[in-house]
Structure prediction request, 450 residues.
Amino acid sequence: MFEKILIANRGEIALRIHRACKEMGIATVAVHSEADANAMHVRLADESVCIGPAQAAQSYLKIPNIIAAAEITGAQAIHPGYGFLSENAKFAEIVEAHDLVFIGPTPDHIRLMGDKIAAKKAVAEAGIPTVPGSDGGVETFEDAKKVASTMDFPVLIKAASGGGGRGMKVAQTPDQLKEAFDTARAEAMAAFGDDAVYIEKYLGKPRHIEIQIIADEHGNVAHLGERDCSLQRRHQKVLEEAPSPALNKEQRMEIGEITRQAVAKLGYRGAGTVEYLYEDGKFYFIEMNTRLQVEHPVTEAITNIDLVREQIRIAAGMPLSFKQEDVQFNGWSIECRINAEDPRTFAPSPGEVTDFHAPGGLGVRLDSGLYAGYRIPPYYDSLIGKLIVRGATREEALMRLRRALGEMVINGVKTTGPLFEELLHEPDFISGDYNIRWLENWLSETEPKS
Ligand code: ADP
Prediction:
C-alpha cells in the first residue's frame, strides 16, 4: 500500500480523499493555489505545497507543478478528485511516466470516454442501450439534415468533447436545425477546442439515472446500484438521491447487471459512472464519467462501501474488498449541493463566512471545508459543501433533511440552502415525481418565499 498520496484538488473533495487516506494510515500532501493557502484541505493535510497563483490554469491545472510537488514530497500516487485534471488522459500518462500511480482508470479508457462519439459506439457494442441518433459524428450541415430527416423532432446536437452541459443545442423543428448545428459547433469549439458534434433524439421528460461501477485490475467488476440526479438546472445536477424513486428492485438489478457486464467487456479499471436518461421504462446511455462523482456519498450511504478507499486499493493493485453478491442496498440517501450562490438567481456569492454551524446527528453527513472566518475565493466552482442524509425510508431521509437544513448555519454569503428548504414543501418533490425539466419549470413558475 502507498505511504503517501498527493491530492491534486481542492475544497470538499480534497478533504474527502484526505479522510480516506487517514483511515488507511496513508500520509497526505495537499497542493494549493495562493488563494487557497488557508483552506481546510491545506490545514488538515500532513504536508502542503503551493503550486501557483489563484487562476486554476496557473495552479490546479498546471501539470509540471503538480508532478514537481509529488517528487519533492515523495508521494507515490496522485488522486485527482473530480473536475480539474481528473478526466485528462494526458495527465494520467504523465503521472505514470514519472513512476507515480494515477488513482483512476487507464489513460486509454479516459480518452475513449472523453470522446462521446467513440464512447457511445464502444458501449453500444458492449451491450448498453443508447439514445437513437447519428451513427457517429456529423461533419457538415448536409449530413446533419440527412440524419435528422430520418428522425422525429425535436433533436439534440451534442458536442463530442462536451461537459457541463455546454455545446448542446435543441432543434424543435427542421427549420431550427441549421442554427442549432452552427451554435453547438461554435460553442464546442470555444469551450473544448473541438467542434465535432453528433445528433441524438431529444427526450422530452426523462429522468437522469446513473449506475456506479467499480472494477479492479483482476477482472472483478461490481455495480453499486443507481443514483437519481433528475433535479437539474441548466443540465447541471442540484440534488441527488439513491435509490431512484422511479425504479423497483428488479429494474435496478437489471440495468446494474447490463452495465456491469458491459464495463467488464471494456476491461475498465477503477471507479466509473455510466449515465442514462430513463423514459417510459427504457434506459438510454448518455455518457460515462471515468472518475469519482460529486454525488458518490449517496451510494456510500446505502451500500456502506467507501468508494475512495476502494479506488486507492485498486490503484495499489489490490482486489475489490467485496463481491457483487456482498453488495446490499439499505435505506435511502439524499444529497443537496450547497453552493455559495443566490438560491434563486444562482449568481455566485463568494466572500467571508462569518458564522458556521454544521448540522449533525444520526444519518447526517456534511462534506465541506467551511469554517467561521474562511473566505470563499471567487476563482473556483461555487460548491462549498454537500449535505447528505440517510434514512431507513425516503420519508425518513426527507424528515432528516428538513431537520438538518434547519440546523445548518452559513452566514456572510448566500447559499443554495434555502432552495432545498422550499423544495421540501413541494408535493412533486416529496413524492419523488420529478424529471430533468421539473426544477427549471418550478423556478420559472414560483416566487421565492422569503
Ligand atoms: P455533459 O457532459 O455536458 O454533462 P451529458 O450527455 O451528460 O452532457 O448530458 C447532461 C444533461 O443534458 C442530461 O442529464 C440531460 O439533462 C440533458 N441531455 C443530454 N442528452 C439528452 C437527450 N438526448 N435528450 C434530452 N436531454 C438530454
